[in-house]
Batch of 4 targets.
Target 1
Amino acid sequence: MSGEKCAGHAAARLLPWTAEQGKPCYVVGDGTGYVSRLADDIESIQLGMAGDLLGHAGELLADRRVTGAELRYLACRLSESLRDVMRVAESRGARLEAVVAGAGGRQGRG
């Protein structure tokens, strides 16, 4: 995945981690640097873990013997995972918008 330039300036990329007190972190560049590659790897891991968690959730919810504590734990992990996935989507959506804006607002060719 590469970073995108908009109007001659490198676009800021939302990173898949936060700073202290949950503040967002960004990197500015062309998407080929160490931090961008690390972010790509972490996003890939987060998305993979979300898929695994969904599979586990389906199995757990199908088990009629599941306890309230197990369901609460599952809900907490699903919430964390959804937060990660939303951050990945926000980051990728912003980069996609930068590509479209950088292309003069043209939509993809059919």
Note: The beta strands are 5-6, 9-10, 12-18, 24-28.
Target 2
Amino acid sequence: MSRSGFTGLILATVSAICFGFSGPLAKSLIDAGMPSSQVVWVRLAGAAILLLVVTALVKPSVLVVPRSRLRFVVAYSLVGFAAVQAFYYAAIARLPVGVAVLLEYASPVLVLGWVRLVRRARLPRAAAIGAVLAVAGLACVVEVWRGVRLDGLGLVLGLGTAVCAAAYFLLSQKAGDDIHPIGALTWGLAGAAVVLVPLAGPWRLPWHLLATDLTLDGRTLPAPLAIGWLVLVGTVVAYATGIAAVRALTAAVGATVASLEVLASVVIAWGLLGEALGVPQLIGGALVLAGALLAQTAVARTASHAGSHAASPAAVSHAGSVSRTESRHAQHDSDAGLGFHTARASYGAEPRSQGAGNARWEVRLSR
């Protein structure tokens, strides 16, 4: 592995661990009496303000968004940040953090289903096997043989998170090369915070929590420290390191490292909140991760193969080769399924090595 690749791997690992703090810290605030909608708003608004100030002082040009792209930014905010986080935080209010994270991991399977059933695209057999493994893993997570013992509304909210995450992946394909990824992230967070104002009612925030300590499995943590860590580490640092990492990593490696977020969330939830998953849920979680990674790796390999054929005039003219139209669809479809929490978008910023030869930026899905 090259030096830049090793650096990217370290940054991606740091990003996954930082994102792993999001659910447990948010749940500690929810358990202390802050509604999940207000926890979401505090996180989004705090991170947006911090990013706006820093980028405005360091490099304000990244905040410029062409008028023609305003509609995309609005949809990006609504789906990728407001909807995903609102559903996810509402889910962890009713479910163990690890279960909520695994339910959200169903989104790559939903994307593959959309690509196959709606776009009528051919997918590799390994992708189908991965999807089946992921679904079987989810069945183990919710323990269907016991009549689903988990909170019903929590399961609906968790699956709602997966649906919104899948929509976000598909939406990200429409990103152009005229929006900087940091600018898209900043305005996405800010727009989501504005949209959630009526739901969160920030004027009703329980400010008294700022003077109290949170109880975390018998230990205490000052509420301001938990909020600050959630905003700075669990959001800003997590996104910043994730965006920096993807410039040096292939999509398959990035997707694999991103799966560490599930492990980090489970471990941190166990350490901070005392939440432990049962044996069936641990087995199911392993199946979900294995299935998602198998599907995404297979699609990435197919996209790379299609891209190499499309790049060669001789290959295109060869009988049985991939046509330009098929290659383009294969690349688009692979973009949809290449990585959980790694929605690929053609921002045209820093180039990195890709099988299909495209310069890509990847933006971590919000959590």
Note: Strands lie at 213-216, 219-222, 342-345, 361-364.
Target 3
Amino acid sequence: MNPFLKEVAEDLIAKFGDNLQDCAIIFNNKRPAAYLQKHLADSYQKPFWSPSFFTVQEFFAEATHLKIADNYTQFFTLYDCYIEILKSEGIIKLPSIAKFHAIARIILGDFNQIDNDLVDANKLFTELEDIATINQQFDFLTPEQKEFLSQFWQSYADGKYKKQQALFIKMWQRMPMLYHQFHQQLKENGFITMSRLYKTIADGRNDVDFTAKYAGRKLIFIGFNALSKAEAKAFVRWQEENKAIFYFDTDRYYLEDETQEAGLFLRRNLRMGLINQLSNQQSFISASKRNVNVYKVQGQTAQAKIINELLITEKELILNDQPVESTAIILADESLLIPLMQTIPSTIANKKIDVNISMGFGLSNSSLYGLVDLWLSIQLELSAKKTIQHQTAEAFISHPLTGISELMRPKIMDALIKEQLVEVPFERLIKQGGVFVPFFTMVSSSAVAVSSLIEVLQYILQRELASKKLKRFDADLFGKAIQELTRLQDTLQHHIEKYGKEIELGFVLSLIQKSLSSVAVPLAGDPLNGIQIMGLLESRNLNFDRIIVLGLNEGIVPQASTGTTFIPDSLRRAYGLPVLENQDAISAYMFYRLIQRANNIDFIYNSLTDESNSGEPSRFIKQLAYESGFNFSYKELQLPIKTEVKREEIIVKSEKVQAVMNKYLSGKKYLSASALTTYISNPIDFFYKYIAGIEEPKEVEETVEAKTVGSILHYVMENFYEVLKNESPEITAPRIRAHKTNIPNLILYGFADNLYGKNDDEPKNERLNNVKKLAKSITFNGMQKVVVEIINAYVDIILEQDIENTPFTIIGLEQKGNISFDFEVNGVAQQVKLFGIIDRVDLKNGVYRIVDYKTGSDKLKYSCIEDCFDTNGCKINKALVQTLFYTHVYEQISKNENVEPNLYIVKTMRKEGVNFTSKNGLLKDEFLVTEKQAFQNALREKLKELFDFNIPFKASENPANYPYSIYKTLFGKS
């Protein structure tokens, strides 16, 4: 089938011959011009003078000497007018410019529709005191329109409306004056809105007679569908004046059927007298049956992933060195552009795949926009508190455009992590120099916000250019962003000087974000050859043999909602303003027009339901399948999901592994209680941590983690009892109570000690002095204040237990010790050093007690010692193993066998006490003696397994034994 524009080209040549250069050809958008030029060239087969091509807005802009006001000019002008109206009403409390911005966009949208559709603003916004006046003042309305109007005003009868309705009516009453003052002030300043220009052209009041030279039907409007009333009025007049002709892309299939919404506006155009220069009798949809494939895909981006499978024919053409001339991928959902670009390969068998994207690449999809967005976030943070969240600082340091070298990034991050600053002072970052200076310097006022960002971008652009790493496309993004910001700065400058401090910095930053989010940069490509990628709007007037439509879901085509407006639906219907059905009709026309001349059609939709997607195909698909007679084929494509196969990772004890393990056997390395329980719970974790030395990445704790709570609690208890012990090791209840006043300071020092980091070489007193200095600079955030209270409560629980247990004698605090432990491997005697740091050792009634503090969910109950060492079992009690470990170490050091393990589990000790218990009773006295021997026997068996070089490291068969392992991704367990 011939493309629509080819038929137009042939008809134009038949009508104008070689005189086409005197004509003006007007489209809805720019894209069709290149196609029409190609068809004209193919038809002429010789050099010719091209006609002038315009978009309708470009053409209408010729009708005035005034400048078309941009969005910012319109907004500030509207604000000026609104404030003047409020002042004239005697209102003192005026809305800030930031608060007005949200409703301004709605008001401006309504004003544009009023002008585009030639609505009398005075009548629309007239205050109606009684419903009966509708019949008197609005006798021009049809009965149906009067009914709509009556429905609206019924809810505003005197005495019935609430506060919100009263505010709405007040706003409604201001609208006529605001509307007229807004346009008047724009005109006085040399501006006009595009919609107001449409209205003046429709009324014949434009100040430039821009159509005078086009007598003889030389105005050629191509491919228009939904006309505003202003456009329609102007078009009819120009046709009557023999200036204009029209080419409508129609199909009898939907044009003559009144139930087909796709033909709604075309029928209106023809009824008002506009003449289509092409036949309205053709029916491309009914001409032949076509095959339509409907693909149901699970997932949003998964739609793009199947494109490679659908482009088999195009790939064969490329491999055979044949051009791809008529294939288009239409993005009904334009958010699929990036996934699609990532899916289509640039080459096949070393042959280039030509792709043209008419939509352009949105700046908001680029890393540059990410950097700008980061700067905006930083400025908002700085204006509020003069500090930066550590995640923000980390995002900046990690961003590719900051230019921070791979060598410097980890150093800067390590420094911030060491300081554990959840909130980083901006001065701390500026000290780094370079790009940190312009990026983290606080914007001093709203007036310099835009210019400050321009300076940042220029700084980075110059550095990137100097490095000669900047690609042409990235340079275009920088240029477009700086150009848009410069335009915004020029617009803002006058108004910022006028309003001064009344313009909030946050508002200006939001304007920057909005201005850049709409910027797009064209991508290289040939609009006439190769695979064309475009949105549904860009496809107007164009025809392709092969159509692939992505994102064809209900709610997207057609859209499920209209723009926000102050004009309710009933009034919109009464005055003939656009309503949801009009939007549906426009979408229907674009859909049917797109497929009416296509031979191969593929529809793809996302079947997954979420908050933004219905999971249903567009109703246009169902409608076409029901009515057209096309051969529909429904396919459900489920992309194979490949997960890493669970594997049993086995680490053989190679020579390198044995070399590390021999350090334990030779006494160069000590085996700690935590290392032992790690091996018992999951041997492969022991390998990664203690043999391979793979540590968990350090990071700043935004919320205080459980292990940090434990560290701080241990610090508080050690220092609490250290002061008492230095005075006298005999601890009594009165002494504990008297010393409790020091706990808040100890908790603060505990936080500081945790932030200070580890430094084993620093003398204890020197470290304490540094910790106290650091504590003075700490300001707790909300979450940290909660943690302080939790730790304070934990300390109270421990001290309550100790008070009940007084008097007792403190023997040692955080006491370190190591002992030799003998065992046998394959008949050979071996020995390791067992090392422990015991939280507390005290003496009560002749019994030495090992006290271990726990803030987690440890248990005092256990089944038997052997079960606690069973790697593949489900009854491991790590706390028991650790405490008996410390007990054995202390007994060997002190040469005292009368040592009892106690566990202070702060969450449960009030109810459950502090002694371990099994089915055979409390772990005390004679039972404790037998369990100590069982512990030593089980320990020897586990060490025999650990140091048998023929037994590899592998994961426990019970995943519950390592639920929080950081090494899961390494040993393949999910």
Note: Confidence is low (pLDDT under 50) at residues 128-132.
Target 4
Amino acid sequence: MPAAGGGGRRYDPQRRQRIIDAAIRVVGAKGIAGLSHRSVAAEADVPLGSTTYHFKTLDDLLIAALRQANAGFVPVPDAGDPDLAGALARLLGEFLTADRPRAELEYELYLAALRRPALRPVAAEWTESVSAALARRVDPRTARALVAVMDGIGLQVLLTDTEYDEAYARDVLHRILSAEPGPAGPADPGAADPGPAAPGPAGHAGPAPGA
């Protein structure tokens, strides 16, 4: 049977996944600016045509990489844990400290949506999935506030190169949970439905923005 780079093409059912994994490694080593079909093909050790076959544009490749990174952190505390603020602070700490380079990589992919509109719906998927998971424990508006605070704390830690302060995070999250609910106001089109949410990875799912 001809080799993958020769005159024929060997069937490789894992090639698409290997290309995504290679793209994540390239971004981790060189940043978004270093990502190209050619650099990913070299990293994945596949013909250049394979990357363009599976991913017509770099945005297509980044979308796949971001979606995989999104799966890396979906904080879903144990339903029986009465200390929701403490559980979320602990899960956030695991994400930020267990493998900091990977946390930085996931946030880089997440923030790439600022310059690449095609990535924004995928970035929003993470916010919506985490909000939906938390809406099992709190109302939808509070769930979104918790996600926003965790995102902000994560960015502060990574951008200022400081150590994660779990006690501080727990205190801030506790304040949100303890606050009196404000007026409902107009319907929030982005609010998560408090009904049953699709089950996600429990706690910190390692390998995969991110926030």
Note: The CA atoms of residues 108 and 118 lie 15 Å apart.
